[in-house]
Design brief:
The complex is a heterodimer of chains A (about 290) and B (about 290).
Chain A: H1 2-51, H2 55-60, H3 73-80, H4 83-115, H5 120-130, H6 139-148, H7 155-179, H8 183-191, H9 196-207, H10 209-224, H11 228-233, H12 242-251, H13 257-290
Helix pairs in contact in A: 1-13, 3-13, 4-7, 4-10, 4-12, 5-7, 7-10, 7-13, 8-9, 10-13, 12-13
Chain B: H1 2-33, E1 36-38, E2 45-47, H2 51-57, H3 60-91, H4 98-106, H5 113-123, H6 130-137, H7 152-177, H8 181-189, H9 194-205, H10 207-222, H11 226-232, H12 243-253, H13 257-285
Antiparallel strand pairs in B: 1-2
Helix pairs in contact in B: 1-13, 2-13, 3-7, 3-10, 5-7, 5-11, 7-10, 8-9, 10-13, 12-13
Classes of the chains: A mainly alpha (about 290), B mainly alpha (about 290).
């Protein structure tokens, strides 16, 4: 009792002296935060403003909010960008990649985190290296290879490339997440007669859920925003993802800024909503497992 | 018992199989390609040993792009990591309204590099760009930004940092949240000031995360490509001709796959060196 009293008294003395300084610090912190927030948000605001202006107004007023709000850019961009088709395709690419990635990556991560078969260290080194190899390093031979395997221009061909490309990072994150789980639970389940598959599906997977969520977000975001591989391996407009819709407005010699902005907002909107909604779990997922090795 | 030993490999097989087919094999093919050259006489590819490497090492444009990449790396990595650390420390505080700040702040991470480059290209435009609008309002002269030999690389640094700073601060923030608040409180009670508890407690505990961020950021910036392709195409006067863009230009615009593959191989070796640094730094942290 007296010890607690002493600490709080000491705290009080400390706080009284620090309060004034702390007030100044608060103002300073908020000022810095405001500047940094402006840096983060202004480009997005410009995009949002311009998506609501006519092309003519953007010419006269490229910076500020629209004097008259025009929403026609959105239906026009949606039509001209074939978003009805590309949105559907991107959802297919994203969902299929995430689903397969989590299953394959989860299995591999579990093997590396818990079983540590001979050669694990070498495999980890390979995954580390593979995670840094840029697409340009292998895109030409891969094109030849895809043609030989008759996978050029198919949904599953591109999805397999995405799964492979994202596998190293997925395995890394999930492995470090699983390594931290208490082993006792798994051992208890084994004693109770669970087989290896049951241990994985009933014990490890439910406990690793936040890790899977984080990895799912990272992979999904990457696939949603991916452009180079899609453009190289898909040639049928019926199979193009959303990033090609955006490129359509930009690639022309004279860029229509109103449509470009509306197109960008259409692409950004779903990911932003998802990202904001899951942000807390996302950071926690990274904090709890992702960043350890 | 035998099954027990095979099981982990069975679990690893699907992911590893896909990586081998869609990643490792074509990467090795590029390494092999770097030793071939297109023969002008026969029109066929012929084995050429290190001829492609000799060609690029004697090529001033390659060295110029190498130099630009080194300068870019030496500028962009410290800037991004310092700002990311500052940002993470700021949004880790329990300030009123911090949740909103944190959300807004991390928004750029969700934006693709292509969209980012396009929007910043618009904002940095010499005549109608927003940044010049603000500068003239404040009484400064208009700046050419992406059209100037002196400013183009800085403009690319700015654009790369718009995503880079929040992205890496996210990892540092995650690391900060792993630090137990009782440790910092104990230091406070013992009379440590803000700087002391930062330099003596926070920073050492962040060492692992910072080592990871340092290397991942360095690799990501070493491979910077999309803003160059979309905004400057390496110009003006090769001032933004980063090495990743140079390999693309060589291979895909000029069709010289041999030289392009040799450059990619050199880049891969440099990436290996950076990873070696990571392993070394992480070993020191343990």
């Amino acid at each position: 009792m007296s010890a607690i009293g002493k600490v709080s008294l000491r705290d009080n003395i400390l706080q009284r002296g620090q309060r004034k300084e702390r007030g100044k610090l608060l103002v300073f912190n908020h000022a810095v935060l405001l500047v940094l927030t402006a840096f983060a948000v202004i480009p997005l605001l410009v995009l949002a403003f311009n998506s609501l202006k006519t092309e003519l107004e953007i010419g006269q007023n490229p910076l500020g909010p629209p004097t008259r709000i025009v929403i026609e850019n959105f239906p026009t961009a949606w039509e001209e960008g074939d978003f009805a088709i590309t949105m559907r395709n991107s959802v297919i690419y994203v969902v299929a990649t995430i689903a397969a990635e989590l299953v394959l990556g989860g299995l591999a991560a579990y093997a590396l985190a818990r079983k540590k078969p001979p050669g694990s260290d070498l495999l980890m080194l390979y995954f580390l290296i593979a995670s840094t190899i840029p697409v340009w390093m292998y895109i030409v031979p891969l094109f030849v290879q895809m043609r030989m395997m008759k996978m050029l221009g198919t949904f599953h061909g591109l999805i397999l490339i995405y799964i492979a490309g994202n596998a190293p990072l997925t395995i890394f994150l999930l492995r470090s997440y699983m390594i931290d789980l208490p082993r006792e639970l798994e051992d208890a389940a084994r004693v109770d007669g669970a087989n290896e598959f049951q241990v994985l599906t009933r014990i490890v997977l439910p406990l690793t859920k936040p890790g899977f969520l984080t990895v799912g977000l990272v992979v999904g975001l990457g696939v949603w925003n991916e452009y180079t591989l899609a453009l190289t391996f898909v040639h049928d407009p019926n199979r193009f993802p959303v990033t090609t819709s955006f490129a359509k407005f930009v690639d022309r010699f004279d860029t229509n800024w109103a449509l470009t902005s509306a197109g960008a907002i259409i692409i950004l909107f779903p990911v932003m909503v998802l990202f904001l909604a899951l942000q807390r779990q996302f950071i926690e997922g990274l904090a709890e497992g992702g960043i350890k090795t | 018992m035998r099954r027990q030993q095979l099981l982990p490999y069975l679990f690893l097989a699907p992911a590893l199989g896909l990586l081998i087919v869609f990643n490792l094999v074509p990467t090795i093919a590029t390494l092999v390609e770097s030793t071939f050259i297109m023969s002008l006489r026969s029109g066929h590819r012929v084995f050429a040993g290190f001829a492609n490497y000799e060609r690029i090492f004697n090529d001033p444009i390659f060295w110029k792009s190498f130099q630009v990449t080194v300068v870019f790396s030496l500028l962009v990595n410290p800037i991004q990591i310092a700002l990311a650390l500052a940002l993470a420390l700021l949004i880790n505080q329990k300030l009123p309204g911090i949740g909103i700040f944190r959300s807004i702040y991390l928004l750029p991470i969700a934006v693709s590099l292509n969209v980012t480059a396009i929007v910043w290209g618009l904002m940095l435009d010499q005549n109608s760009g927003m940044v010049n609008g603000i500068l003239t309002q404040l009484g400064f002269a208009r700046q050419p930004f992406l059209h100037s030999v002196d400013q183009a690389l800085w403009s690319i640094i700015l654009i790369a940092s718009w995503i880079g700073v929040p992205l890496w601060s996210l990892f540092i923030l995650a690391g900060l949240q792993n630090i137990s608040p009782t440790v910092l409180e104990a230091a406070k009670i013992d009379g440590a000031n803000a700087w002391q508890s930062f330099s003596k407690i926070t920073l050492p505990l962040l060492r692992r995360v910072l080592a990871f961020v340092l290397v991942a950021d360095t690799v990501a910036n070493f491979l910077m490509f999309a803003p160059i392709l979309l905004l400057t195409q390496g110009g003006p006067r090769l001032s933004t001709n980063l090495i990743m863009y140079e390999t693309y230009r060589r291979g895909f615009i000029y069709g010289d796959l041999g030289a392009s593959s040799a450059m990619l191989t050199v880049m891969l070796l440099i990436v290996f060196l950076i990873i070696g640094l990571e392993l070394y730094l992480l070993r020191g942290a343990e």
